[in-house]
User: Fold this.
Amino acid sequence: MPAEKKPSAARIRALDWHRGLAVLVMIECHCLVLLNPSHDNEPLRLFLNSINGLVAPSFIFAAGFALSMVSCRAASDPVGRRERAIKTLLRICEVLVVANILKVQMWPVFSKPSWWLRVDVLSCIAYSLFILWACVFSLGNRPRTIAAVMAGLSVLIFALAPWTETLRGLGPLQHFINNSTESPFPVLPWAGYAFLGASIGALMSIPGRGPALLLRALAAMFAVGLLIAYSGAMERLYRWNPWITVNAGERIWKVAAIALTLRGAELFGTSRGWSMKNPVTWVLELYGTSSLSAFYFHATLLFGFTAPLVLGGYISFHPVGEFHAKVGWGMYWLLTLLIVAGTGVCCRLWDFVDVRLPWKAAKKKPEAAPKAA
Assistant:
């Protein structure tokens, strides 16, 4: 491609803010295990429940968006595309490894081996991204085609999901189809958010038109979500199952609204010549660019772990275990802030190690040969 038509490699800070906001709300959501059940029906708790349902779709949407965008940007260069494909695949494997480490820490996977198959949110992201990776890289340097195919697949997933909720007797596949096996985030329907994000991410990579297409696509996503949630059309199609209205339509338009708001803030600040560097964006970018490590560290700080030692015995780490289901609102917010701060510190420490891992260390470019005199 001519240089002037190559996709821009500029980072979309609004995407980092979106992920960072999702991390903070996720920590608040998971910290609700500390709250005494006597507060379950209070207005504040009900309000938090109304926003906590946006965490998982935001994470999955952002993961699909980022994979598609960076893959399409690298597609114009065969060498860069191959390197990007390998790097992306390793990143997806890293997500799956962290998901399985958390399963060992939090679930009885050794006494109940079937629990290895249970799909949590990290496992769902990894499985969804494996499928996306194959689709996006097989379609090559055709962002419009990728956007259309991904949008079509997301519609198909959301349309089929209500019909699959009654399926039983599928063996190991059951964990990926619905939550009858207690998989909290089965690939159907949650992968639909990843494909939806991938469709919009591909549009963002189109040279020159990406930013405008991004806003239009998010606006369309917002409108379609509202249509699904409030038009009544889905209730007529799925009279026996309101899943598509409440769990898909409402979350789709709300995730789109958040993305539009953050992207609008980024564009407004950029147009005014602002650096957009302040304590709020610093915090959001800290957690947004370290979302995987933030997921692991906050879960470890909140839920702890018990691990067997080689020579016998166990080592336990449960820093707030004694507070589970026992505290009031004041203590809840204090412990939540402490876990947020502890997670941030751990992420910073891990970032120092992460970039120095052998398979991630930056390769030195060969020095140019000296010119002949």
Observations:
- Residues 1-5 have pLDDT under 50 and may be disordered.
- The CA atoms of residues 241 and 329 lie 36 Å apart.
